[in-house]
Specification:
The chain is α/β, with parallel strands linked by helices and 215 residues long. It is 40% helix and 25% strand. One of its GO terms (cellular component) is cytoplasm.
Amino acid sequence: MKNKKRGITASSRRWVERHDSDLYVRLAKQDGYRSRAAYKLLDIQKSFSVINVDNVVLDLGSSPGSWSQVAINIAKRGVVVAVDILPMKKLSGVYFYQNDCLSKAFGIKVQELLFDVTGQKNGCVDVILSDMSPNSSGFGDIDHVRSLLLCEACMKVAHDRLRKNGNLVMKCLQGAEQDNFISHIRTFFSKVTLFKPKASRKESREIYIVAQGKL
């Protein structure tokens, strides 16, 4: 049904109403974060301490920048490199590069980016973050598979660029292939935990994979 007065659908109007009344949306505005997603990483950090003060952090799928904001606030003596296929407004202390994380040349490109920023030839990082999620198709199984493709891309970067004992955090949409994927990750990290932050909506299928201590 169309809401003729406002020119939007009833479902869109409900989304706007829920967004405006959301506690974390209000907190983000109050605390100066670019989105409510900041509180998901803050909760992960509080529970697992994945980022340290002097870390080199790679934030994949960074736009609009709330995870980069959290990361640079923690890694005050470190470096944050953010990458997204979408543009991201400049953020103090964060090096942003617009690039497609799923492109075939991304692995080489990210090594070049890290060398430019850190001056280290190996282009390695201490932490990789990913809040990437596929565009919704409306079909849960399809979105789940697309989400795993993004996670596999993160794992590829982690294999190549994450230091020994480094940490990886990435979002995954739950589904049938989740357990097999988690089992695969466990062979490369000393500890792997599934975590749902308080800021994740109850109805959301998103879960965060927190992989600590790269072997």
